[in-house]
Amino acid sequence: MEGVRAVASGTSATDDVEKAIRDKCGVVGVVAPAGTEVAPLIAYALRALQHRGQESTGIVTQHEGKSVLHRNMGLVENVYTPEVLRTLQGPLGIGHVRYATTGGSTIENAQPLLVTSAGGDVALAHNGDIVNSKPLRDEFIAKGWSFLTTNDTEVALRMLAAELATTPNRVKALRNVMKRLSGSYCFTLLIGDTLYAVRDPLGIKPLCYGSLPGGGFMVASESTALNVVGGELIRDVEPGEILEVTLDGVKGFLPEKKAESAHCMFEYVYFARADSIMDGATVYDVRVDIGKRLAKEQPALADVVIPVPDSGRTHATGYAFASGIPFAEGLMKNRYVHRTFIMPDQKMRDQGVRMKLNPVKSVIQGKRVVLVDDSIVRGTTMRRIIQMVRDAGATEVHVRIGSPPITSPCYLGIDMNTRGQLVAAELTIPEICKMIGADSLGYISLEGLTESIGKSRSQLCTGCLTGEYPVAIPGEKQRGQATLF
Prior knowledge:
By secondary structure, the protein is α+β, with helices and mostly antiparallel strands. About 30% of the residues lie in helices and about 25% in strands. A hairpin with a 2-residue loop joins β7 (about 185-190) and β8 (about 195-200).
């Protein structure tokens, strides 16, 4: 994934090296038989979702009417020590890993959030972005409410707590809150001693659930979280659906009216782990198909296909298969360099790319190379990689990209906030090719992408590619979209 520089509040662009495009979060919820300590299960599941968020993490467990919360900045493996896990007792809990998109990267904004309401303790973990959170926040501040965080999750949580005070039916209370939210959201919630899961009416972000080997159930952003604990996927949560999860089973509450879906296309292209199954599709198979289609649409005369690790690997596998050009790992990734490595100047940022990637000269020297990645955002990291490949002896470098050009911001959970971050918003494809120093540059078509995913364009959110969004965004164009509310 070609990089984007810092956007989180509280950080400066001069203080941050280019970052990969970041999804907001991953969420987990677990119900297990009495006597089971779910905190270790949740921690394992969160490690499987670590790619979805690396800034902070938290777990809330519920035991005998008491909720216990632990949150901290950092990676899952560092936050949940044996001592911490022992404090998180109970057979019921939710967990979260976070990147900041709405609200800065601070401990105050780490999740889950926990409040006490008239209906008991309420804890919420959220993946996505609620685009109308600011007007909602301003409305409630005018009524005398106060907020402890700057994130959109607290807005939804406090709305729910207030709703529960007057609406004892929890599902109805959740539905009333959903009617006021616009944007992308998947929630796992603890309301009293019951686990709930919610997916937004368009199904923008993924959410699924399955059974656990010792009894009980898990809800998670991706099926890979179930796999790591030996669970079995049952199905995806439907767009607009509310799940009530207990040891007795899972009750699904569908909305009376069904909306058109708008699944995030970038989940299939980049965000989700390749071994996950989302909305009936295996992500690995989708990415291989993208590579195959890319080879047909954008052929190249070359000697070797090389992926940009790790994001371009599966796309490159498909490209090599369809083109007949041999596949080789020509760039080795140093997995011990943190992805948010801070470097103060351009020279050190260039060195940072070499710390992360190193060319294999025997694979590259004297060869015409097809370099495959999932996307180009700013173009500067790709330019450095191409120069690195040329320095290793490549005679030609042809770049092939497994998504169409990213021309517009994302407002629904990805940290591409402005057109100024996007090279394709300003330059044509030939101009980008010249800017990055490639011999040729080819992107998959939007038609090719949607066919590879196996969904129609009307079933996907492609706002960052087309500038047309499935929800109302001030100043942006909204596509024709049937909605629930």
